[in-house]
Write a structure and sequence with these properties.
Number of strands of chain B: 15
Radius of gyration of chain A: 22 Å
Oligomer: heterodimer
Largest sheet of chain B: 9 strands, mixed
Strand order of the largest sheet of chain B: 7-6-5-8-4-1-2-3-9
Bound molecules: flavin-adenine dinucleotide, adenosine monophosphate
Largest interface: A-B, 81 and 91 residues
Helix content of chain B: 25-40%
Shape of chain B: elongated
Strand content of chain A: 25-35%
Number of helices of chain B: 10
Helix content of chain A: 25-40%
Order of helices and strands of chain B: EHEHEHHEHEEEEEEEHEHEHEHEH
Chain lengths: ~260, ~325
């Protein structure tokens, strides 16, 4: 079982995140960057499948040079090797363009299963499995809270409003995982040491046979025109309950014509 | 006037078009004349035409096939792409559910277009508003390639009737084998609730770790029922087993934008804020005066939820 896990480096969702006023893209250079938390569930799932069925886990990242930190994290958890697509020309690409780069990189790998997170916490789009399925012609089983690989078949419980759908598709397939699926492991000291020696292959657009005019800010299919901080809320009212907290709360609701 | 295709999202329980569909029809009117697209198993469209017409659909395209229901997402994208190539619409507007976003993504690749997800507003020139980074940043963006595709975040637009002809047109469908790879074997409903749907509700009452137990969530449900509200939960409450995951509000749960959001025993972590920050009015009840949720609250009660919430519920019920 050859598994590729898509891993993205993102600005820490717990820190203040910004767009860069120079070109309206996510300010990554100045950010506190981490592995997309949601991708840790995909890595954990890949490692669990590998432990049960054998095979190899490859991490695939499209991102700037600094994204190697996210790759090392994935390798220290137990992935075997990595491919890092890095090229100045990719800066400012949108989801449609990134999916073309990821698809080209996947076409140079051998895989039975592609795993990714349910969403990147910076873009919050949750569209990569659909985009890659469309480009590669492989089935998309997204939003998994449970994955079973049974011979040549992937079975997934897709989390839905108030329940789930059971999905089934032939391999190779792409599966995205929710944070309800498992508990990602922490890298062990041994894992961290071992990760330093694991192979990370860096590829450029030229290595993937992609023309620079297909990617980048100037060729994106969408454009951020402007942005602004959300206007601060006016100072709210805060009361301390001294037996009258409920009354004051209900009075507030009445003032808003809610009750 | 230019035609704008609006993908209808229907209530799976047969309750007609979802509110998100009426919102999408309303938003689409800024761009041109909306046509609704109804996709599903045979019989899906019965009875929804009038509702779609009332909210502005000049035409209602109906594509019904068992394949659309039996396989995940890809068949819907395929039919929609066929309609885009036949009708050359000015834009496509889709409700921003997980499935809606995936259909938009596939449609973008199929039609060589750009797409924007979770938009909260669309103006006549195609400029969309998006809320980024857990509500901290407001972004204006545009699709610059192909047919603009937008997914509209629920509760961002108030549905307004604008009666139109709603002329029904049957679309013949033949789904390719390529779109029939992921079979939906079973659809399992685990919780049924008589309360409003979380993402559509105009009032949401959410409980956090402070609620302290699954049994004690009855306090939250009691307040919610007195207000006709949906119940939500923080991830800590979900992870502790107090309430099912499908009610989680936040970055990895639902995004809600109600008129009133009441956060009870929730600290207000950034990941929780991501899902509720755009609520119109926010009330927090928390015993810790330093809890970050108070930074967002229009009204805050510093106190023990176990006394404040039941007392408030009683008073609200008494006013009825
Ligand atoms: C990748 C990732 C994704 C995440 N996604 C989400 C998400 O989608 N949604 C989400 O909510 N979180 C999410 N989180 C978790 C988030 O970081 C917080 O841990 C979580 O929101 C905390 O929930 P809480 O406020 O209920 O618990 P706590 O932070 O423990 O807060 C409990 C609050 O209850 C108050 N309290 C306790 N007892 C009482 C009482 N008797 N009366 C009144 N007040 C009381 C306390 O003062 C405290 O403020 C995510 C985290 C990560 C890393
Ligand atoms: N640049 C990237 N490199 C590698 N994986 C990515 C990249 N962008 C997105 N992904 C993967 O796709 C998932 C969904 O991302 P998104 O659709 O942007 O929310 C993420 O959790 C990642 O696993």
């Amino acid at each position: 079982m050859n598994i590729v896990v898509l891993v993205k480096q993102v600005p820490d969702s717990g820190s203040e995140r910004k767009l860069d006023p120079a070109d309206n893209t996510v300010a990554r250079a100045s950010a506190d960057n981490v592995i997309n938390e949601m991708d840790e569930y995909a890595i954990e799932e890949a490692l669990t499948i590998k432990e049960a069925q054998g095979g190899e886990v490859t991490v695939l990242t499209v991102g700037p040079d600094g994204a190697t930190d996210a790759i090392r994290k994935a390798l220290s958890m137990g992935a075997d090797k990595a491919v890092h697509v890095s090229d100045e020309a990719i800066h400012g690409s949108d989801a449609v363009q990134i999916s073309a780069v990821l698809a080209a990189a996947l076409e140079q790998l051998e895989y039975d299963l592609v795993l990714c997170g349910a969403e990147a916490t910076d873009s919050q789009m949750s569209v990569m499995p659909a985009l890659l399925s469309e480009r590669l012609g492989i089935p998309q089983l997204s939003g998994a809270r449970k994955v079973t690989i049974d011979g040549g078949t992937a079975k997934v419980e897709r989390q839905t409003d108030g329940g789930y759908w059971s999905l089934e598709a032939p391999l190779p397939a792409i599966v995205s995982t929710w944070d309800t699926i498992n508990e990602p492991r922490y890298p062990s000291f041994k894992g961290i040491m071992a990760a330093k020696k694991k192979p990370v292959e860096t590829k450029s657009l030229a290595d993937l046979g992609i023309d620079a005019s297909a990617v980048g800010l100037a060729n994106a299919t969408t454009q951020v025109l402007d942005f602004a901080g959300r206007p601060p809320k006016g100072e709210g009212v805060k009361v301390t309950d001294e037996g009258d907290g409920a009354q004051k709360f209900v009075d507030f609701l009445a003032g808003q014509k809610i009750v | 006037m230019a035609e704008v295709l609006v993908l209808a999202e229907l209530d799976p329980a047969g309750g007609g078009a979802r509110k998100t569909t009426l919102e999408a029809l309303t938003a689409a009117r800024a761009l041109g004349e909306p046509s609704a697209v109804v996709l599903g198993a045979p019989g899906t469209a019965a009875g929804v035409r009038d509702q779609l017409a009332e909210y502005g659909a000049a035409t209602v395209y109906v594509a019904e096939s068992a394949d659309i229901d039996d396989y995940l997402v890809a068949p819907k994208a395929e039919v929609l792409a066929q309609l885009v190539s036949e009708k050359s619409p000015a834009a496509v507007v889709i409700p921003s559910s997980p499935e809606g976003k995936e259909i938009a993504a596939r449609l973008a690749v199929k039609t060589g277009s750009g797409f924007l997800t979770d938009v909260t507003e669309i103006t006549a020139d195609g400029t969309a508003t998006q809320v980024a980074f857990a509500g901290q940043t407001i972004v204006h963006s545009k699709v610059t390639t192909g047919t603009p595709i937008f997914t509209l975040r629920g509760n961002s637009v108030t549905p307004e009737p604008a009666p139109a002809a709603g002329a029904e047109q049957t679309v013949s469908v033949s789904i390719s084998d390529a779109a029939k790879q992921v079979r939906v074997v079973e659809r399992v409903v685990e919780q049924k609730s008589n309360r409003p749907e979380l993402t559509e509700a105009s009032i949401v009452v959410s409980g956090g770790r402070g609620v302290a137990s699954a049994e004690n969530f009855s306090i939250i449900e009691g307040l919610a029922d007195s207000l006709g509200a949906a119940v939500g939960a923080s991830r800590a409450a979900v992870d502790s087993g107090f309430y099912p995951h499908s009610f989680q509000v936040g970055q990895t749960g639902k995004t809600v934008s109600p008129q009133l959001y009441v956060a009870v025993g929730i600290s207000g972590a950034i990941q929780h804020r991501a899902g509720m920050q755009t609520s119109k009015t926010i009330v927090a009840i928390n015993k810790d005066p330093e809890a970050p949720i108070f930074e967002l609250a229009d009204f805050g009660v510093i106190g023990d939820l176990n006394t404040v919430v039941p007392a408030a519920t009683e008073q609200i019920n008494a006013r009825k």
